[in-house]
Design brief:
Number of strands: 5
Number of helices: 7
Number of domains: 1
CATH topology: Rossmann fold
Shape: globular
CATH superfamily: P-loop containing nucleotide triphosphate hydrolases
CATH architecture: 3-Layer(aba) Sandwich
CATH class: Alpha Beta
Order of helices and strands: EHEHHEHEHHEH
Structural class: alpha/beta
Distance between the termini: 10 Å
Largest sheet: 5 strands, parallel
Radius of gyration: 15 Å
Length: about 180
């Protein structure tokens, strides 16, 4: 089974993905790592900056899809179960992968973000805590918009969406239950 945790930045994807990987004793990777490897390779099209416009989110997911598909193919030949999390895929890509692979997916978002929340919960992605204030303000502004786009896409393609804005631990338990039901 491939467990996919997608969604908006700062919504808890890494925490959920790592928690599920530890609970199931399986491998885990963030698409952030895969993107970093692609940037080292200097692959054309790799995203280089923050862009929360729906068209940019969709274009990035479409560009990233062949790499995600190849990674899932490779992982599936080596392991029965694996967790992949990140912002670099959307429900539309999961629909394309589902006929070939056993996949469970959940998408996370955060419908309200404040600078205080951003600062208080730095997340597991490196670099957020040292961003300039202007960039932090931009992220705080964009996360709810990005989350709404993800919510709509998840609904459109029939995938569960969890808004982590309130009672964060309970929201992660809900998302985990969606992914691990019957396991």
């Amino acid at each position: 089974m491939i467990y996919l945790v997608g969604g908006a930045p700062r919504a808890g994807k890494s925490i959920l993905g790592q928690g599920i990987a530890a609970k199931l004793n399986v491998g885990w990777v963030s698409t952030d790592v895969l993107m970093e490897l692609l940037s080292v390779k200097n692959d054309t099209g790799v995203k280089v900056g923050w862009n929360a416009a729906p068209t940019a989110i969709m274009a990035n997911a479409e560009w990233f899809f062949p790499y995600l598909e190849r990674f899932i193919w490779g992982v599936s030949s080596l392991a029965d179960n694996y967790v992949i999390e990140g912002v670099d895929f959307l429900p539309a890509q999961i629909v394309q992968l589902s006929p070939q692979y056993q996949i469970r997916a959940v998408f996370l978002g955060c419908s309200s973000m404040t600078l205080e929340r951003f600062t208080h919960f730095p997340g597991r992605s490196r670099g957020y805590s040292s961003l300039p204030n202007e960039k932090r303000q931009q992220i705080v502004h964009d996360v709810p918009l990005w989350s709404e786009f993800i919510r709509q896409e998840a609904e459109r393609f029939g995938y569960p969406y969890v808004d982590t804005v309130s009672d964060f631990p309970e929201c992660l338990r809900t998302a985990e239950a969606v992914l691990t039901a019957g396991v």
